Amino acid sequence: MLEASLSQLEQLVNDLVQQNQALLGTNQTLSAELAQAKDENESLQLSLMEQEEKQGATAARIQALVERVSAGPVSA
């Protein structure tokens, strides 16, 4: 009886150790994927900021051109 209980306990401990190893591997994989996603997010945010700056500069140039056109004919 005691021997059977001990064997069962050993099997349960082995199962838990295997599950723990699997979870550790999954955790490492998820951590790596999270780090990659954070890097990609940061890169995309920087790209967005650059695009916004370019759009702002373009809008300012267009506005200056519109103001020049609206000012009327230039006398020579």
UniProtKB/TrEMBL annotation:
Q: Write the record's keywords in alphabetical order, separated by commas.
A: Coiled coil
Q: Which residues form a coiled coil?
A: 2-54
The protein's name is DUF904 domain-containing protein
**Species for this entry:** Pseudomonas arsenicoxydans
